[in-house]
Every structure is written in C-alpha cells, then in structure tokens.
Amino acid sequence: MINRFCESPLWDANRTLIRVAQGQEPAELVIRHAKLVCVTTGEILDDTDIAVACGRVAYVGIAPHTAEHCIGPRTKVVDAQGSYVAPGFLDGHIHVESSMVGPSEYARAVVPHGTTGIYWDPHEAMNVAGLPALRELAKDAARVPLKCMITPGSCVPAVPGFEDTGAAIDAHDIAEAEDWDCVVGLGEMMNYPGVLAGDSHVLDEIDVTLRNGETVTGHYSVPETDRGLNAYIASGVSCCHESTRAEDVLAKLRLGMYAQLREGSAWQNLHDLAPAITQHRIDTRLCNLVSDDNHPQTLVSEGHMDRILRKAVDEGIDPMTAIQMVTINTATCFRMQGELGSIAPGKCADLVFLDDLHDFRVTRVFIDGDEVARDGQALFCPAPFDWPEGMTHTMHLARPIDDNTFRIPAKDAKGNALEGDYATVRVIVSSSGSTLTREEHDQVRIVDGELLADPAHDVLKAFVFERHHATGKFAYGFAKGFGIHGALAQTVAHDAHNLLVVGDNDHDMALAANELLECGGGEVAVQDGQVLGKVELPICGLMSPEPVEQVAAKVERIEQAWATMGCTMASPFMTMGLLSLACIPELRLTDRGYVDCTKYQFVPLVVQDDAS
C-alpha cells in the first residue's frame, strides 16, 4: 500500500535524508534537548535531538550524540528544553460526524490535543448520501494538516432488510473508493451475522479490501468468544472496537485480532476493559486506544486522545504502554508502521510536545515537520466548506406531522383491536454509557383504542420516520431509561439516521419533529410546548457548518435541557441515537418496526398473553 499521508514519499525523500543524517546537507528543522518517547523500545531517551527534512525524520541524535551537524544557516532550531516528545497520536477508530462538524473543523479541534492522524469511518454520512458524501468529506479533509485516513462504510445499510437508508453501498462502490488516495481500509463490518452466514454481499466487500492489502475493521458486539469470533476473524477482519468486557479483549488478542479499547463521550468502556491489561501479563502490541464517538463539547473541554491517555493511566495502564496504544500499535494495525507511529529515521515527522506523562498536556504539535498547533490553539483556520445541495437538503418526509401522528393504535400483530384496559408491550431499555439495550415487557394503558405512554414508570413513546426518500414508512414502540417529561427528537439516529422522536406526550413530540424538519435536521428538546434547546445540523442532518466551539455550546445547553427534563444520563442524545441501531443487541426500533437483534427478526410491539 502506498502511503499518501506524508509530505513526500520516502523514495522521493531518501536521498536528501541520507545527506542530512550525515551532515552533508542542512536539515529544515532540528529539535534539541528532548526527552524522546521511544515507542519502539519503550524507553525515555533523555537529551535527544531530532533532525527533519522533506517532512520526515532524517536523524535521531541520542545523547551523547547531537544533531549539531545537521544545522545550517536556514535551519529552524527548536529547543525542547527537556519536554517529552512523542510520536503524533493516532485514533484507530472514529466517526467524525459524531462531533457534529465537518472534518476540517474537527481537525481544528483535535490537532491541538496531539492528534495527528485518524482512521475514520464516515458511514454516518454515507448512510444519508452515499459515495458522493464521502467524496465531499474527503475534499474538506484534504484542506487541513490532520491526516484523515478513511475506511469507507461497509454497512450501508447497517443491517440490510431491517431499515431504510438514504443510500446503499456494495463491493463495486468499495472498489471505487479503494482507488482514492485517502482510503486505507474498510469501515467497521457491523454485519457480523452476514459474515458468519457467508453472505456474498458482505464477503465481496471484505475481499476487495484484502486484495488491495488493506485493513478490514470490525464490529463484533456479541459476548461470544468461540466459534463465531474465530469465524469472524478468519474472514479477514483484523480489529474490533466493540469489546465491553475484559474477557472480550483477551479473547480477541489471543486469536490475533487487534483489540481497540474504546473511551468516547458516551461509550466509556475503558474502566471495564483496562483489567485485561493491568491484571494479566500480556503483550499489548495488539492493543489500541480509540474514541469511536465524541461530542463536540468533549473535544473542546476535555480533549481527544490526550483525554483517553489520561484515563488509561488513571486506570493503571503504564504511560509508555498507553502511548504505544495510540502510536505504533495503531499504525501497525493499519500496516502503516513504516511511515507513522514512531520517531525514527525515514518516518513522517509527526511530533507532540508534552509536559509530562500523566496529565499529557500538549504544548506543541508538528505534522510533517510543520508546527500546526501551540499551547492548545491550532495554527490553521480553514474557510467554511461549500457543501453541495445533496448534503444540505436531506429531510424528505411523505406527510405532515401533527399530534395525531403519534397515536399508537391498540392492536395486536394481526391488526385486531385489543380488549381490556392494559396491554403488555415490548420496551427498549437503555443505560447510560452503554451501547447495549435490553428488552423489557411492561404494561401500558389502553384509552380510546390507543396505547399510552407511562411517564410515571419512565415508559415513553418512540417513533422512527424514514426521512430520505419520502416513502412514508414509520414505526413505533416504547423506550425506557431516559426519565424525561416532554419530547426529544433527532436525526442523529444510528445508522440509518432517520427521524427519531421520543416523548411522553403527542403535542411535544409533534413540535420537536417539526422543529427538525424546518431546520434541516439536528437535535431538539421540547417540554410543555416550549423548545428548551436545539442543535441545527443541516449537513446530512448530522453536521453543522458553525465553528466547533459554537456547536459545543449548543450541545451543552441541550444537555442542560435534558437534565431539566429529568434525565441523568451522560451524553444522553448519543445514547438515544442508538435506539434504532439494529446491529447491536438486544432490541431496537427502525422505520420498519421492532428488531430482535439477537435473532435478527422483526418482533411485534404487543406481547401475547402466553408469551408474557
């Protein structure tokens, strides 16, 4: 695989690097007196010099050797003054769209925190607008120094036959994208049932990627570590970020799979996963730290990979081990260790200055030898990107929405009217900080032929409307765990990103839905006929054209609104957005109905008496 993410390919630069290393030609940049974080050996090398040319490291002078012989009249010399200098941080699995801004604005948020490269699965936008969206996102990403290495969405839709999306991706689309310079692998293969069943649609996408010598990223979310996991890995999938238990991590490592330990805004798994490392004497070379999804206020107020490094150290992971998990291990996972992930001759000069190896405060960031951030501020400012109409007008419903839209008829699966005052229904139960849901059977009242919400017991109505092609499809059910009075609506509804509305009364639900139809998508909180907070996301219904700080402030206000409405979850909108994600157990709601995500079959809302 040819790396297009350095200033110049090594075969164009090696003659210059050879001369610079020997003092026959001056370097462009020399960093002196650094504490080098040597991830190849796990050492801290005091008083080390680093010489850079052509965007790459030409010479590493380990005391008593120095880079004085590389300094010429025009060489920029930076005295590190004993700061730690580490390789640039790499996020091995991220969905930029979850930050609610485009990739260039995302770069401005994360680069000051030491992130120099991301392995990005844009399946969120691709589910809305397909390969054309990916092409536009790549154009925006190319305008900034952050190395946005793309793994195109493999599951668009995530679970075929169970949801309706704005686009569909197949092996021919993946083959086309694989020819783009920015593409380095295949996005997370969420359709693990398809892999295990030998589905040709799924395996054709994997095979295209393998033939190109690139990495197939995974999503094995079930707590099964024997036959299914073996088969999944044997297909060619080589990494997975969906571990929720330490035993999942160990099983994947023992079978030769990269285990990507996740710590995002909502999916805070590191506490449960770290014991796989801290309580076992294992080799950690196949371990990565990843974020998966981050809300904008997390990036603005807490950071990115530096935040995850702090958390890892707090959980007892050795600082050097943690840094290896965001540098050389990640580069090796994507077969790019010859270019990225360490500070060594010939490698890209992606460097991060740190005050210490506990708080990981980043003071300076260099990408390809150019300083791109200092003291928490990016030294680049991209102009707004001109998004095409196909990505900014994506709200297409077949019918108006009013209060009556949210009536749930008291009928069984055959359409027969239910008798009595109560019915037993399936309810999706969500938990803070978890991607998993569980199925619960609760009783709700029947009044005038309608099934009612039960706010006293936190049983809310949930609706999903197809919003891409005006098909008129929609489905309904009940959700639990949010604890709110009022209504919430969002078009960030993984992975089909249809219009999702949850609430305890029809009027607030209708108002919330119409607010998003008017602004082109986003997130809104409504209570007693009043809009308490709103985040407009007119780009695919997922992203805002505004600066990340402004978006973060809006998200913070809407989370305050959630709290006012009674919710105690962390990043509640992110948790709510998974109600329709039909590739993770147990029960989900798509625009086609309830999906049992353990058996992969549709199930009725009303539970028959003999099954309750």
Secondary structure blueprint with pairings:
Blueprint: H1 10-21, E1 29-38, E2 43-53, E3 56-62, E4 76-79, E5 84-87, E6 89-94, H2 103-110, E7 115-120, H3 123-141, E8 147-150, H4 171-178, E9 185-189, H5 192-196, H6 200-211, E10 215-218, H7 227-234, E11 237-240, H8 246-254, E12 258-262, H9 270-273, H10 275-278, E13 287-290, H11 296-301, H12 305-314, H13 319-324, H14 328-333, E14 351-354, E15 362-367, E16 370-374, E17 377-378, H15 389-392, E18 408-409, E19 422-430, E20 437-447, E21 450-451, E22 459-465, E23 474-480, E24 487-490, E25 499-503, H16 506-519, E26 522-527, E27 530-536, H17 548-565, H18 572-576, E28 587-590, E29 593-596, E30 601-603
Parallel strand pairs: 1-4, 1-5, 6-7, 7-8, 9-10, 10-11, 11-12, 12-13, 19-23
Antiparallel strand pairs: 1-2, 2-3, 5-14, 14-15, 15-16, 16-17, 18-21, 19-20, 20-21, 22-23, 22-25, 24-25, 24-26, 26-27, 28-29, 29-30
Helix pairs in contact: 4-6
Proportion of residues in extended strands: 25-35%
User: How would you describe the shape?
Assistant: elongated
Which regions contain 5 or more consecutive residues with pLDDT less than 50? none
Number of strands: 30
Class based on secondary structure composition and strand pairing: alpha/beta
Give the spatial strand order of the biggest sheet.
18-21-20-19-23-22-25-24-26-27
How many helices? The count is: 18
Mean of residue pLDDT values: 96
The radius of gyration computed from the alpha-carbon positions, rounded to a whole number of angstroms, is 25 Å
Separation, N- and C-terminal Cα atoms: 55 Å
Major beta sheet, specifics? 10 strands, mixed
Estimated helix fraction: 25-40%
